[in-house]
Design a protein that fits this description.
homodimer, Dihydrofolate Reductase, subunit A, eight-stranded mixed β-sheet, 11 strands, two-stranded antiparallel sheet, globular, alpha/beta
């Protein structure tokens, strides 16, 4: 059965990036050095290898529009898998004409996730972008959250999630302890 | 050597309590059920027993004024150990006359921590209160942070730390994985 999952690196004080650019910037970069450091050796460390395998195992990607456009739709496909972008505005030209694997969905997050899961078959749907992840979470269509908790206090920046309409309980599925980060996988309780 | 440590339960989205009361309230209570649940059996689970032992091993407490007053100075001592409260205002009457183990320090957080460590001897100094913990952190006198990461998204509330003046690197010292929480102990890098 396909599982929708958000994979996110978070600072101990709950930030996913700096104020200006939730995909990068200096603070954003700090949150992603764990994969570089752990993967620096010719043979990446076990956990990083496992996470790379999980990322590559996705059968579809659900991406927020801002993320998709900032990443230029990953060149038209996300490692060969289709990309679904929920948006009420018309898709940009590149997505309309140049990217057959990119589908803009204008009837909401639930429909977009349903289409992504149908395309993914038995494989996972990777959710890309904090805002769309929150929409999926609050719409009840986000199944799991893989957090890489980074041992740093950024002190400022963009939150993992903005204010939520209600408290959401999680279940700890797996904890992997490395020097670079504490990797915790959660299942969203419904 | 005495170590100053902040012990805090935090939601996955970085909150330590609800907006109204950073010592409790509904959200705050949710963040502390892990000890109750894990300790509900006649024999508390190993981790909770260990944490209780660490809490009781403190040789002194450094408490924020708001926390100390809200808790009525824990009745005059924190499990028998002295309490130090950094504050530029005069101490309240109870602390002046009724609580010989409570010391108000009016010349800053660094002096208050020095006095607390002197009183603690070889034992730890437990830091109580998010605001004083941040002052200690930014003044360079907070040594370790014990986080109990709770599998819940509160969606709103008080942050672990308010905006910090600079990024602060941590070192992961210990990870304890339980169903109720992921317990991570950090050393503050200097």
């Amino acid at each position: 059965m396909s599982v929708s999952i958000l994979d996110m690196s978070v600072s101990l004080d709950g930030y996913i990036a700096d104020d200006d650019d939730y995909l990068g910037g200096d603070d954003g970069e700090r949150l992603h050095t764990w994969a570089d450091e752990a993967g620096a050796s010719v043979q990446p460390s076990g956990p990083v290898r496992d996470f790379e395998a999980e990322w590559k195992a996705a059968g579809a990607v659900l991406a927020g529009r801002r993320t998709a456009e900032l990443m230029d739709h990953w060149g038209g496909s996300h490692g060969g898998v289709p990309i679904f972008v929920p948006s009420h505005r018309p898709p940009p030209p590149a997505a309309r004409w140049g990217y057959p694997l990119v589908t803009y969905v204008n009837d909401g997050i639930v429909s977009a996730m349903a289409q992504a899961k149908a395309a993914a078959g038995d494989r996972d749907v990777q959710v890309r972008g904090g805002l769309v992840a929150q929409q999926a979470l609050e719409a009840g269509v986000l199944d799991e959250i893989q957090i890489h908790l980074i041992p740093v206090l950024l002190g400022r920046g963009r939150r993992l999630f903005d204010v939520l309409s209600s408290e959401i309980e999680l279940e700890i599925v797996r904890v992997i302890d490395t020097p670079e980060a504490t990797h915790v996988r959660y299942r969203v309780r419904r």
